[in-house]
Amino acid sequence: MTVNQKLSALRKTMAAHHIDAIIIPSSDPHQSEYLAAHWQERSWVSGFTGSAGLVAITQNHAGLWTDSRYFLQAEMELKENEFILHKMTNQFASPYVEFLAAQLPMGATVAINGFMFSKSAVDGMKREFSEKGISLEYKKDLISEIWSDRPALSDAPILYHEDKYSGKALIDKLEAIRAKMLEYNAAYHLITTLDDIAWSFNIRGKDVEYNPVAIAYGIIAVSDAHIFVDESKLSDFVKKQFSKNKIHVHGYNEIISFLNQLNEKSSIIVDTNLCSQSLYEAINAKIISEASIPKTLKAIKNEIEINHIRSVMKKDGAALANTFFWLEQSLQSGNDINEVDVAKKLAENRSQQKFYQGESFGAIVGYKDNGAIIHYHPEPKTCKKIKPEGILLVDSGGQYCDGTTDITRTFALSTPTDEQKKAYTLILKGMIALSMATFPEGTVGVQLDTLARQFLWEEGMNYGHGTGHGVGFYLNVHEPPQGFAPTISERGRTVHLPGMLTSNEPGYYKEGEFGMRIENLILTINSDKKGFLAHETVTLYPFDHILIDKSRLTKAEVSWINAYHKKCYAGISPFLKGDIKTWFKEKCNKV
Fewest CB atoms less than 10 Å from the CB: which of 15, 226, 262, 285? Predict the structure, then answer.
């Protein structure tokens, strides 16, 4: 079916159920960012493939709400169908609720699938709709009634993430969670997000593209634990570890009945921002509404993980060097190269590195005006041919048993304009300012975000996305809670602590012409000043000399760049040979 045919079928189903509007999110029962194909409902019904966005459909309007990272992509993908783009200035707001409340008459009914929305999100919608006399029906799965060829859930095997990588034994993680539970006098802790489950049970899977997670639920109790998963996917070693640590295995769909059968006098910690409405309703116990314990624990990397992170950046940098050497030589030789070719070469060169498991996200390779599409991902039928001219933005990452990488570099493929050099240098100055920051304990992301924007702001320039996100350890490349953001979102209000790994990626985008972003991962560490913290840059790859306007740099910034380039060569060069090593040494020269 075409998108418009799907809309027609859905509206007929809505009418049959006496539903006036339906809201379909970019989510799954685990509140994931990246979704298994089985749950990609919003993408299926709208044709919009971005990772963030939500649709609201009535009998006479079909709207997609998404934030500035996806405006250009959405305009391109929706132009052939009935959906209308609604631009969100705040990606954490819910203007679609306000829209429906204004459009629908009193007594109307809005439907959602309660498994796809968190308890807190449903509470918020209920409040807004009730003020307008609109009811919210959250036990309807209308998409399943029309999606006849819906993909099945993955049957990929689940493996154990060995202690030599994770740095902490399974029992130690369970005891750390239980210690926090004890503070709340809780008998249970319900864990619903896939990355929290993967970390807590020391498992990794292949159920979701780019994210090494397995589809499951988890419950930690005081003396044992429970995991709800397809048992046939568990390796013998995983089963052995579970048995040894008193972890009981249940079927994935048995979670509801288990929650129904809890002792009503017992207490259970539930993160209402992450637990679905449908799961929340099934709980027969006293609910303690608190943040997911493993979410905070896993954000602070241990020493073994940190040492692996420092090491993994060297081989990842070598993969980049091999790719960008190939690109430069190919363009000089007049070979036909397109954006998809670069993405494939990046994955190929990473795959030759030890412990490689796959990409951490679909590579963003944006040539010229495609670089201004912030989350652009090239496709074979529509990608641009790359020529030895203009600006190229490359944002990519890898998943390794010993770490997760995410790096962006912007290149001038010919002599850049003064405007391009100015933009790049202002971005670089902001990235360096955040990298060099010393800040007091208790500082939050919204305070640090300003450091990366200050030089762009002085020139009346800005970018419409956050400056950084938390990064997992052989886990999700976007890992809450911390980050650098201009709003009091979770990223913006979370205190930065030693051991947190966060991206540092200011940018600038000129629609229709070019996009620029520079991204390193930085580790929060203790400063030599008591009560203060600092950042250690762990990503290794040099900046593009030709785009740097040295006249705009301070002596301290020049010194930082030169020391960083020296560190890049020292870390990466042992992985390179011959002409590539010689070429890379030039790339690491002083500015």
Answer: 15
